[in-house]
Amino acid sequence: MPVLCEGLPQIACDGLPSSDVSPGLRWVVNPPTVLADPVLVGESDADEFGASLYGSVIRDGGVYRMWYQAWSKDWPNDPNLEDVATVACAESDDGLVWQRPNYGVMEAFGTKANHLTDLPFHSSCVYLDPQAPSSARFRAFGYADPGRFRGRYTHRINRAGYFTARSADGLHWHIDSPEPVWAGSDVITCAYDRKIGGPLVMLKRGRLSGGLKRRAFLAAEWIDGKATEPVSALVPDEYDDLQARMRGFNSADYYGVGLMPTAGPTIGFLWNFRHQLPLDACGAAGRVDLSLVYQLERGGRWFHVTGRPDWLAAESAPPWARGGLYTAANSIDVGDETRLYFTGTIDGHGYCGQGVDYAQWVRSSKALRGFAKIGLARWPRNRLIGCRSYLSNILTLVPDAGRIAGLTLNAVTQPGGSLRVAIVYRNGQPLPGYGFDNGEPIAGDHQAAPVRWKANRPWPAVPENRSFWIKIEITNSILFAFDFKNQSVG
Predict the structure, then answer these.
(1) What is the number of domains present in the chain?
(2) Could you say which of 101, 287, 455, 470 is the most buried, measured as most Cβ atoms within 10 Å of its Cβ?
(3) What is the pTM of this model?
């Protein structure tokens, strides 16, 4: 059964249930702070040539755990097989300094003294399943292909596709079935969503669009051990091509999408793959940048932030990540901040050089501690998208009638700026004593500023037969999120 989320901040996104938005409000994205240095680089036999976060980072008790794709020191040793299904697991006490424990699970280079797991997937996303027995507390999804990957895994599956596996410890894994759960290829991401009582899963599929075979994404769920039928979620279009050309590329599609479920909208970190020329049947070479998308309700349409601005562009990333950016399957909250781990590469996707053998180039990256490294982007919690107003403008919210006992705002004001709140009936008339002039203005930088009324007036009890709206006057400020306190939860 879905878990209802109450008393949690809702990120302010265009299209949230509201009856009126003033013309002067503008939707903006809040760029993250990116650590200058990577948090994990290739420095062992298992990942000497690179560490790619086609995987997940979660907190398991007091320990951070990271499942990632490890590019071993003998990659590529066979031009006919890709070693892209080797999953390592690192651990950390603070999410900043990572260790490689010797798990003793997989033999590599004559020893089991390494941090490899036996999860046989490419693009492995892992989450903790609170409804599962201890023998299956970890659940993973990923892509596997016996025709492309190393032979040590091919006996577990019958054909290529997206599979799921379970584990008691996150190291020893059992594939549920030798048949794939869903058809598809390459990248799959997922994140546990309390609203649905299971993970939201995003699946890459190829499709024709604008005369070009492009990568698009479908959405599915895994509820009570059963997979739902995927539905179309994110499809590239001509506006993506325009965005690519504005940045010096030819066309675009989507290579992946990280996920951040919230009490309100579900946020996606979209991997925008911008193709460079010459172009083959499906763009293979180019750069990957990140933008924000969101879904307002379960199973609903996905939206881009107005204008589709980059949230994090590779060209503005640290030098080790300017070839392309690929996020973890999920973000994590740590205190008052949210973190998103990501892979940065020193070259664009598809190898963008000429006259040098690709395998030789990869081997040369050893001196750089791998061609792919894992970094960290972070931002104040619930501050991803916001509505900005320089002059005074109004955002109107529609809460559940008669059940609200308080409201907090996540906002930043500029000098001379403020936010004020009024409670009005649906005809626009304010409740007596609850107009804009009756509340205490909010100014400054606040993650959860409570709305207070003058003379310590309490929040009103509105009759059940009268519905009301909340109007927020935003002056030279950005509102990022809001949180209604519900009377039923005190």
Answers:
(1) 2
(2) 287
(3) 0.93
